[in-house]
Design a protein that fits this description.
The complex is a heterodimer of chains A (252) and B (659). The N and C termini of chain A lie far apart (63 Å). Chain A is built from nine helices and seven strands. Chain A has 252 residues and is of the alpha+beta class. In chain A, the strands form two sheets. Chain A has a five-stranded mixed sheet. A two-stranded antiparallel sheet of chain A has the order 6-7. Chain A folds into two domains: 112 residues, Ubiquitin-like (UB roll); 131 residues, Fumarate Reductase Iron-sulfur Protein, Chain B, domain 2 (Orthogonal Bundle), CATH 1.10.1060. Helix content of chain A is 37%, strand content 14%. Chain B is an alpha+beta fold and 659 residues long. Chain B has three domains: 308 residues, FAD/NAD(P)-binding domain (3-Layer(bba) Sandwich), CATH 3.50.50.60; 145 residues, no CATH class; 132 residues, Methane Monooxygenase Hydroxylase, Chain G, domain 1. Chain B has a five-stranded parallel sheet with strand order 5-2-1-9-17, sandwiched between helices. In chain B, strand 1, helix 3 and strand 2 form a beta-alpha-beta unit. The longest helix of chain B is centred in the middle third of the chain and has 27 residues. Classes of the chains: A alpha+beta (252), B alpha+beta (659). The interface between A and B is large, with 81 and 84 residues.
Chain lengths: 252, 659
């Protein structure tokens, strides 16, 4: 409890996908530095309700950095100023008294705005549905320890699988590319023997879906990796490209 | 009184499931294609059931209120999943997992269900590995295990502190595969607002599209509720903000009994409340009790910093009271012990409502282990510290990072401050052996049902149960019902019961919008939470419960006359969604108090202050209370109790001892 902050918030307000949005300015005071960023928005929202205004709509659920639902663009950065943190885990001690904070939704044509800060990320679900799985029905599995996997591979696969699907990588990218998200799943499965059988086909199908959704191309700026709250590595993109090209060259 | 029929198969305990599985009616593939199943919820239970049933050929629809099925709160489970694989050669077996679970649940769960759970536990791990779930492994490439509370073997499989995430993403991948193949139709940002029954059978649901506000009718030959627990009745809990009881409560009002609603799990290791602004509490995984030591100062009201308190002035109270299990006693016991120390004036931190979870000893132990491994002679203190911290980081890194984010303190340097918080609800919809509720065709899976954890769930068993229900139980048991439904064609949703149910839902939403009172929904939710935490939390008493029931009834009235919901009914309106959920919590909270008042004993997470042993342990009354309390909804504030007697044929009931 280090003290309280008075802040100016510029928040993107947009009633729905069909109308244009704009920034509105709000003052909040007495914000405890122990609050999370979302709790600060809660304070604002309860005040707006009491004043008869429509509260700011935003996506959130677990509030412990793992569900991937929160998705705010804060002062020009996805999930705000700190590295390796989702918006729900960003605390107000990272801000200064008197500061102006600008809050926007993810910006990408593949993530249309639903209302205020809420966007539609179902494109990600469709990319997974295109191939982000091992084709194994329930009941088909062999004993888990009959397939030893080198620890390094398992650890690397886990690091890729830590992606929470929040979309910060897309929001950070000037081309709104979804390469980091897509490659994380392709890598996770390609690194494991269970996933290798379908690795090439998977890469082709997921990349095709990614393109169809309207995500942009990768120009290797690395903004996605820098802004990823879970530290998903750019190496995954290289691995995806390997899987993709070796598959397309060999199969066609 | 109606006799509840749990439909437990005949035969010896170890053979029940195998025999039943081989004799349960089957549905042939052609018929499966014309049978439709509605699944509400996309967590471990929902996603695994949806994928498995779709693989079998059923037509499946899945609903979730989040923007993607991958967000379901199973994702946040940290520590691990139990399975009786005995990979560690430490004496584990199906029977031991069964026994530990029954004992951990303080002898208030159903033997046959728990044994089945233990039986299928191994297959879950096999299935998850086959899906590409990256469990932690040893250098030899085989799976790694750790210990959890209430057990003396290492049977917990894990993926760092993100096991739930990895298991859910595995199930989600399988679900999305079926979505891609057209076998599952997924409805995201949809909230189920009623069950539709026709001639006494569940035949579908009414759902609201959260984006447009449109109400939709969906038919199913069967409906599966995989909607999780109701811990958010306490306002502050480790549940996600959206976790709610609405689907289960609507089912309750349509005839599904709710069993043991007062059995709630207060998890011992959570980050303490820091102020009134707090919107949720964050768990620090039980796995941390593998290596961390829990203590408070021996001196009352000690204001020194943790690092300034010498070893001999620390009270490792769990190790002192429970030498056999030490820091790994079950959750209910660890939570009560923390409360006891804090209430007695030995708590730490600014609020004095916290105890320490200390990693200093583990860091040194691991550091020395690393030094030995690398044949280092006389390693310096700094080297040991650095190596020890690296090991701890690998095992628990994400948890330590999370603690630092939230508190601003570095747990590698100072002990964590922790305090119990609401985490899980053992109670839930009453189900029989087939996981069917008292409404034919309506099932409940995972945390939403009551069946496996008795009065206290052991750590790492929720993930096991969710996936057992979805992958390995419902695909078989649903046949017992659907085999008799093959002549029922898909029904039109224009029939009177669907129209009436939709109308009722619409009127309720309109009523909520039209109250136009003065207070936001959160105001009521916080007040309900405080009543529940104070009187129906870690300690309950007859006097407190009776007063609470009255207070909650008054709060219900106040809510329905003074809640203020902004925005529109036909647009994305999170406040309207919250209002509906809180209205249901207000009714559930009342029932929880009624149930807690009925149970004149202490067991597991239900601790009645009138019923305790001399040394403050829960005092059960097996003669009078060895039953499942299944409540039937009659009308507002009126519930009828039905009892399912618990028979223990394979386990001798005893007072739980972890000493």
């Amino acid at each position: 409890m280090e003290g309280n902050l008075n802040l100016t918030l510029k928040i993107w307000r947009q009633k729905n996908a069909r109308v244009a949005g704009k920034f509105e300015t709000y003052q909040v005071s007495g914000i405890s530095t122990d609050m999370s960023f979302l709790e600060m928005i809660d304070v604002l929202n309860n005040r707006l309700i009491e004043e008869g205004d429509d509260p700011v709509a935003f996506d959130h659920d677990c509030r412990e950095g793992i569900c991937g639902m929160c998705s705010m663009y804060i002062n020009g950065r996805p999930h705000g100023p700190n590295r390796g943190v989702t918006t729900c885990q960003l605390h107000m001690r990272s801000f200064k008294d008197g500061q102006t904070i600008t809050v926007e939704p993810w910006r990408s044509s593949a993530f249309p705005v639903i209302k205020d800060l809420v966007v539609n990320r179902s494109a990600f679900d469709r990319i997974i549905a295109a191939g982000g799985f091992v084709s194994v029905n329930t009941g088909n599995a062999q004993d888990a320890n009959s397939l030893p996997i080198p620890k390094e591979n398992a650890d690397q696969a886990f690091a890729a699988a830590a992606c929470i699907g929040c979309g910060a990588c897309v929001a950070a990218c000037k081309n709104a590319s979804a390469m980091l998200f897509t490659s994380a799943k392709i890598s996770q499965l390609a690194l494991l023997p269970q996933g290798q059988v379908e690795a090439g086909k998977r890469a082709e199908a997921m990349v095709a879906q990614m393109d169809e959704e309207g995500f942009g191309a990768c120009s290797n700026t690395g903004a996605c990796e820098a802004e990823c709250p879970k530290g998903i590595s750019l190496e995954n993109i290289a691995r995806m490209n390997r899987e993709y090209f070796s598959s397309t060259f060999s199969s066609k | 009184m109606t006799k509840l029929d749990a439909k437990i198969p005949e035969g010896s305990l170890a053979e029940k499931w195998t025999k039943y599985r081989s004799s349960v009616p089957l549905v042939n593939p052609a018929n499966k294609r014309s049978l439709e199943i509605v699944i509400v919820g996309s967590g471990l239970a929902g996603a695994s059931a949806a994928a498995s049933l779709a693989e079998l050929g059923y037509k499946v629809k899945v609903f979730c209120f989040q923007d993607s099925p991958r967000r379901a709160h199973s994702i946040a489970a940290q520590g691990g999943i139990n399975a009786a694989k005995n990979y560690q050669n430490d004496g584990d077996s199906i029977y031991r997992l069964f026994y530990d679970t029954i004992k951990g649940g303080d002898y208030r769960s159903r033997e046959a269900n728990v044994h089945r759970l233990a039986e299928v536990s191994g297959s879950i791990i096999d299935q998850c590995v086959a899906q590409g779930v990256p469990f932690a492994r040893e250098y030899g490439g085989l799976l790694s295990n750790r210990s959890f509370g209430g057990t003396q073997v290492q049977r917990t499989f894990y993926a760092a502190g993100q096991t739930g995430q990895q298991l859910l993403l595995g199930a989600y991948s399988s679900l999305q595969r079926q979505v891609g193949m057209g076998n599952v139709k997924m409805y995201t940002r949809h909230e189920m607002l009623d069950v539709v029954t026709i001639d006494g059978k569940a035949r579908g649901i009414i759902a609201r599209d959260s984006v447009t506000g449109a109400l939709e009718r969906h038919f199913g030959h069967a409906v599966l509720l995989c909607t999780g627990g109701y811990g958010n009745v306490f306002y502050l809990s480790t549940n996600a903000m959206g976790s709610n009881v609405t689907a289960a409560w609507k089912a309750h009002k349509k005839g599904a009994f709710i069993a043991n609603p007062c059995y709630t799990q207060i998890h011992p290791t959570c980050i303490p409340v820091s102020g009134d602004h707090q919107s949720k509490l964050t768990l620090m995984s039980e796995s941390l009790r593998n290596d961390g030591r829990i203590w408070v100062p021996k001196k009352e009201n000690d204001t020194r910093k943790a690092n300034e308190i010498p070893e001999e002035e620390r009270d490792y109270y769990l190790e002192r009271r429970y030498p056999a299990f030490g820091n790994l006693v079950p959750r209910d016991i660890a939570s009560r012990a923390a409360k006891e120390r804090c209430d007695a004036g030995f708590g730490v931190g600014a609020s004095k409502m916290a105890v320490y979870l200390d990693y200093a000893a583990a860091i040194i132990r691991y550091g020395q282990g690393e030094a030995n491994k690398h044949n280092m002679q006389n390693p310096s203190y700094e080297e040991i510290q650095a190596m020890g911290k690296a090991v701890v980081k690998e095992k628990y890194g994400n948890l330590f990072d999370m603690y630092k984010q939230i508190t601003g303190e570095d747990p590698y340097e100072v002990p964590m401050r922790i305090y119990p918080a609401v985490h899980y609800t053992m109670g839930g919809l009453w189900v029989d052996y087939n996981l069917m509720t008292t409404v034919p065709g309506l099932y409940a899976l995972g945390e939403a049902n009551f069946s496996d954890h008795g009065a206290n769930r052991l750590g790492a068993s929720a993930l096991m149960q969710g996936l057992a229900d979805g992958y390995f139980v419902i695909p078989y048991t649903i046949g017992a019902y659907l085999a008799s439904e093959i002549r029922t064609p898909a029904m039109s949703t224009d029939s009177a019961p669907f129209v009436a149910a939709e109308k009722e839902v619409r009127e309720r939403l309109e009523t909520l919008m039209n109250i136009k009172g003065n207070k936001p929904v959160d105001y009521f939710h916080k007040r309900l939470g405080k009543i529940m935490w104070d009187e129906c939390g870690m300690a309950r008493s007859e006097k407190g419960l009776k007063a609470s029931i009255k207070e909650i009834q008054a709060l219900q009235k106040e809510f329905w006359s003074d809640v203020k919901i902004p925005g529109e009914i036909d647009n994305l309106n999170p406040e309207l969604e919250k209002a509906g959920r809180v209205a249901d919590f207000l009714e559930l909270g009342e029932l929880m108090c009624i149930d807690a008042l009925d149970r004149n004993e202490s067991c597991g997470g239900h601790f009645r202050t009138e019923y305790q042993t001399e040394d403050g342990e829960a005092l059960r009354d097996d003669k009078n209370y060895a039953y499942v309390a299944a409540w039937e909804y009659e009308k507002q504030s009126t519930f009828k109790l039905h009892k399912e007697e618990l028979k223990y044929e394979n386990i001798k009931i005893a007072q739980r001892s972890y000493k």
